[in-house]
Amino acid sequence: MTGEHPPVYPPATWRLLVHGPADGATNMAVDHAILDAVVEGASLPTLRFYDWSPPCLSLGRSQTLSEIDLAACQAAGVDIVRRPTGGRSILHCDELTYSVTLPQTDPRSEGGVVEGYRRLSEGLLAGLHRLGVPAVQAVGVHTPGQDPTAACFEVPSAYEIAVAGRKLVGSAQWRARGGVLQHGTLPLCGDLTRVVDYLSLTDADREAQRCRLHLQALTLEEALGRILPFDRVVEALVTGFAQALNLALVPAELAPAERAWSVELKDRIYAALDWTARL
Question: Is there a catalytic annotation at residue 211?
Fold first, then answer.
């Protein structure tokens, strides 16, 4: 089990940020602003936890907007945002989201995207084990001839976190200008198949995908048989990251420059139709 052996990384000090709910464009802009600050050497590598309000459907960087049922989102009051990272659609609701931002030169991000997933996932895994979740790093599966769907949680990718073969944590990574941003979502409770209601599908395809999601993904509530509060899960994950990656995590706030830059990034990119509808 992760965390039972001495850390293989040199000790490091990272910043810890815990933020309350924010809209999708704000959340993505803050992650982007942190990445820029870390790349410039203005901020320490950062572990951040946050939530979303109102509920938001996020698209991967290269996903087409045509896969989303815009009318259904508008009718339900669900925001839409495009992430800077890749992957497929996620409905951010009843969840905890994490982000890790660090230089590519850090040994915890060595070896490219897939190896970086493996290394950073050790922190997630250690934290979940502290909660009693029998989680493992997924090998990654894909049925030959099966096209990927618009929903992120249908199939675990390599080194994402799964329980009994069902995906629990979905993550994505962006490497830019010598920095690494990895963020991902841990559903705490609720119905994961709700995302299907906001995808552009026929009724038959919607029902089929709902059934697949039910079989292939789960929430933390399902994994444990009870609901844990956001703060309790954050506490466990903080300890897991610290132990598995040999970190001293220092609670802090966004720097004023990061906050100002995130506001500009939100207006210029993440809340702008040109970015959301770019594909």
Answer: no
